[in-house]
Amino acid sequence: MKYDYTEPTLSTKGAKLRDLLVKYLDIFSHRLPDDVSKKLVEFSKIEVDPLQKLVYDTMMENQRLAAEADVPSCQDTGTLQFFVKIGTNFPLIDELNEILVDATYRATQIAPLRTNAVQTFDEYNTNINIGDGIPGIFTQLMPHSSDIEIYPYMAGGGCTLPGVAKVLMPGEGYEGVTRFVMDRMTTYGVNACPPLLVGVGIATSVETAAMNSKLALLRRVDSYNSNKRAAKMEHLLEDGINAIGLGPQGFGGKKSVMGVNIINTARHPSVIGVGVSTGCWSHRRGLIKLDQDLNYELPMNKGVEL
Amino acid sequence: MKTYHLTTPISADDIKDIRIGDIVYLTGTMVTARDDAHRRVVKEGLKLPVDIKDKAILHAGPIIKYLPDNKYKMVAVGPTTSMRMEMFEEEFVHKTGVRLIIGKGSMGPGTARACKNDKALQLVYPAGNAVYAAKHVEKIVDAQWTDLGMPETLWVCKVKDFGPLVVTIDTNGDNFFDAKKAEFNKRKEEQIKKISEQVQFIQ
Q1: Boundaries of each Fe-S hydro-lyase tartrate dehydratase beta-type catalytic domain copy (chain B) (predicted)?
Q2: CA–CA gap between residue A159 and residue A171 (Å, rounded)
Q3: Per-residue pLDDT tens for A37-88?
Q4: A222 Cβ under 8 Å from any chain B Cβ
Q5: What is the pTM of this model?
Q6: Which of B23, B82, B131 to probe by mutation at the A interface, max A CB count within 10 Å?
Q7: Residue A72 contacts residue A129 (beta carbons within 8 Å)
Q8: ipTM of this complex prediction, to 2 decimal places
Q9: Does domain B3-176 sit in CATH 3.40.50.2300?
Q10: Considering only CA atoms, which of A220, A227, A259, A230 is closest in space to residue A242?
């Protein structure tokens, strides 16, 4: 079977945004965000046992080779997901969906990205890395703004896509949340390419908790929640998971996680929803902020120009 | 942690002294085979169109550049989660005679039985290092079951010093991750107890 896709005719400005995104996707398929790179370098100096050192040396050399060759650093370039905060006055709001899909289509050929879109039930790979609902596009509105913030994420099949969410009873409390997160680390996390960035969502249902856990992965690895109790729990979980000792690739070691980020929203009194998403060490998420004239900033990739 | 250099074809004798935690570098033939290839061989009873006896498979879906005249270039290749193949691996090894099963993360008792009974090794390549791995693929000599799409195709690779590969199941059937997981779970329970005492926010 064949998946029909015709490239859209975009406005001049729309085409400009698409082309900027294509360049950005190409670059961040091999250049990890600054916060992640920094953390990995830090860990490489801590994990000095022979096996762990061998893994970190391989990682450092891999990133160097990928940058040199301008090719994706990991073969699983994921399904593209775009988390977008869009100003209601951003001039390309009508074209945004087409721009994001077409940027994915073009970046797939240029980077090149692996073609990871399989149509469900008909069960064939579209071979162009786009399909129904892929790339994933998730939007939040910014009222009275003409800017846009786009967080692209190459969400891999062996790390973040198999997330989990569950709605607990309030009686289980944050103790239940703790167990849910910690159990996930020893069952799934060990195979999800540690050191991980763990995103935890606390909310009122499976989909809100799951979405919060995903949004948590967009935050920097060294950031903390503004709520004091949530930040305390981030520290406790980070120390706790490190103490489990997963190490790089689950081979054992001192550092299991680059960070634990919690995003929380309110809950119904009868429930406490928890979601867990695990970002791998090769955490390819970015951020491009643009104004209405498409002047851009790349706050997670210092020195990169498109 | 001893280091071994293996070249295909690999005999049972070549690997009999290799133990979990050792490091292997592979030269010779390595074929990518993941979910669909395993399903076809085990569930659908199809014969693998590539001879992998005494050779290696890699649980991986690479990024390939398609060149003219049905030629291919390896851009990036690294292992996918091997546990997904656990349900098929024992029978797959027995049917194909493959000697090295390379992937990512732990596998289970079925693969351990296969490694013991059919004299094979399960090994882990540090995942995410796909360009480093591709650098050690000299060329792609064949592609089969291309109808499955890029990730699932059987890419027949000629590799040189492909590694580091950490031995995670050896021919005794010992599993590197079993001991690790027992440790991880023990420490986890201690940590859950410790954290739970400090997060009683619902009063």
Answers
A1: 5-178
A2: 30
A3: 999 999 999 999 999 999 999 999 999 999 999 999 999 999 999 999 999 9
A4: no
A5: 0.93
A6: B131
A7: no
A8: 0.93
A9: no
A10: A259
